[in-house]
Design goal:
Layout: H1 25-44, H2 57-62, H3 74-85, E1 97-98, H4 107-119, H5 129-145, E2 152-156, H6 159-175, H7 179-182, E3 191-196, H8 201-209, E4 217-220, H9 230-242, E5 246-253, H10 265-275, E6 278-282, E7 307-311, E8 323-327, H11 330-337, H12 370-381, H13 383-406, E9 410-412, E10 420-425, H14 432-443, E11 448-454, E12 457-463, H15 471-487
Parallel strand pairs: 1-11, 3-4, 3-5, 5-6, 6-7
Antiparallel strand pairs: 2-8, 7-8, 9-10, 10-12, 11-12
Helix pairs in contact: 1-3, 4-12, 5-12, 6-8, 6-11, 13-15, 14-15
Bound molecules: pyridoxal-5'-phosphate.
Length: about 500
């Protein structure tokens, strides 16, 4: 009595296990600084190297090694990163990477990932600044898209996941939250959903994952501009109602993956209001055209959607991955996912305070601090510069399209409403020579377009998503493609 026992009595303390921190911080720090310099140097000089190199067998072999049981010097491991990893990544930071729909990253994004990793905050919940920054990003997205400030938002891996979550919320809105416990089998009625034939494959997959079934997704044919045909949409909804089915979800696309088509979102909003359908917009890359004053009219009607899925890692160039779902009705959003668990119960004060945790708005519990890299990117660059880079990509696409129209070797294969140019060798029927041309461009490291199928033909697809792409890159790409076309 009167004497406070020491917290741990030395005699009973366990033998100290070594921590995993470096024994020599100064040496670690020197290697870390060098690694950061190397990473920034690669970005600064990215245009000097090939867009892509195939990964040699010897390198592949280096990644079939047994589990390392003992330590190696960080310097040696970083040497492997330089020699075995950095040269063989996909190449989307390069200004002549034109494949699929990929962001290019920025130096501030590199730094943000470093800072976030050092903080190592678990942003699933609890009362700390991570979820507060995430809330800020939802507010920014709501402002950019014309959503109410109360809208809820949540980071997910990418638009595929965000579209899936949007569909689940629409399901709950249609059937009530008892569907969470009872499942779809308890329902007397079959749900049906509607999307354009240009919609991304993840919409179909979301129907499958949700257990609604992709057979109940109506892929509505598009007009010449790639927009969902409204007459066919109305007909499909009416036919399903006549058949006793329950239309619940209309998916609009803002920037379709083939050539960047936009659905008429305003009219889709009218239809979803009249038919009482949930309007979800897949705006994976296209939604961010709202940041450009000249492109913003494309997204007219987006502000009326119930939910929108989009990616910061595509046209906002935040490092992978940073998908986002924004939802107009936060209560509906939360009631689709929130689940009581004793270990997640809230306290009035302290670290477990706060009603709204990100884990209440999706299936992820442990989650990284994706909000930090978005916050740092927008703070440092400003939303206007990101909008201007989007505009510049569209201008580069127009230039490429113009040069293709003027060429005697190539022809356009689809409209060019945005930043994606689909083209073909003139008169090519199946597309085998188009595919060969794309593979040769990639293998020689000259440029990396991809291919897609349009009207049954495999065509060359150049998607210009990179803020580093100049008109000179566009011209060099077309010259290289022309040289290979002549070989073929
Ligand atoms: C990229 C893309 C997706 C999928 O997004 P991820 O981030 O790759 O999951 C969905 N829809 C469209 C239109 C896309 O361009």
């Amino acid at each position: 009595l009167g004497q406070v026992a020491p917290l741990i009595r030395p005699a009973m303390a366990p033998a100290p296990t070594p921590s995993l921190d470096p024994a020599d911080w100064d040496r670690f720090r020197a290697a870390a600084h060098a690694a950061l310099d190397a990473a920034l140097g690669r970005l600064e000089h990215i245009a000097d190297g090939p867009v892509w190199r195939p990964t040699p067998d010897q390198v592949r072999g280096a990644f079939a090694a047994p589990l390392p049981r003992s330590p190696r010097d960080l310097e040696a491991v970083l040497g492997d990163v330089d020699a075995l990893i950095a040269p063989f990544v996909v190449g989307n930071t390069h200004p002549r990477f034109f494949g699929w729909a990929q962001g290019a990253g920025t130096p501030v994004g590199v730094l943000a990932e470093l800072v976030a990793a050092a903080l190592n905050a678990n942003c699933g919940g609890r009362d700390h600044v991570g979820p507060i920054v995430e809330r800020q990003i939802a507010l920014w997205a709501a402002e950019a898209f014309g959503f109410p400030a109360e809208s809820s938002g949540v980071f997910v891996t990418g638009a595929s996941q965000a579209n899936f979550l949007g569909l689940l919320i629409a399901r709950d809105a249609a059937l009530g939250h008892t569907v969470r416990s009872q499942g779809l089998k308890a329902e007397a009625t079959q749900l049906t959903a509607y999307a354009s034939a240009e919609a991304h494959g993840c919409v179909r997959q979301a129907m499958e994952l949700a257990g609604v079934g992709s057979a109940s997704l109506r892929m509505i044919d598009t007009d010449a501009a790639g927009a969902m045909r409204i007459d066919l949409l109305r007909g499909a909804i009416a036919a399903d109602r006549d058949a006793g089915l329950t239309p619940f979800l209309l998916v609009g696309t803002a920037g379709a993956v083939n050539f960047g088509a936009f659905d008429d979102l305003d009219t889709l909003a009218d239809i979803s209001a009249a038919e009482r359908l949930w309007l979800h917009v897949d705006g994976a890359f296209g939604a961010l055209t709202a940041l450009s004053p000249s492109l913003r009219p494309l997204t007219k009607g987006l502000e009326r959607a119930d939910s929108v899925a989009f990616d910061f890692h595509k046209w906002a160039h935040v490092p992978y991955d940073a998908g986002f779902l924004l939802v107009r009705d936060p209560a509906m959003h939360k009631a689709t996912f929130a689940a009581p668990a004793a270990y997640l119960s809230r306290t009035p004060r302290g670290l477990a305070a706060g009603e709204d945790w990100p884990c209440d708005y999706g299936p992820d519990l442990s989650r990284g601090f994706r909000a930090l890299k978005v916050w740092m990117t927008f703070q440092t660059l400003g939303a206007d510069a990101i909008g201007a880079a989007i505009e510049a990509n569209c201008a580069a696409a127009k230039r490429l399209a113009g040069r293709i129209e003027a060429s005697t070797l190539f022809e356009l294969a689809a409209p060019v409403p945005l930043n994606i140019v689909c083209f073909s060798l003139c008169g090519e029927v199946g597309g085998a020579r188009n595919r060969e041309l794309v593979m040769r461009l990639q293998e020689r490291g000259l440029a990396a377009p991809s291919t897609t199928r349009i009207d049954g033909r495999e065509v060359i697809r150049a998607a210009i998503f990179n803020h580093r792409t100049s008109f000179a890159d566009i011209d060099a790409f077309l010259e290289a493609a022309t040289a290979i076309a002549i070989e073929l």
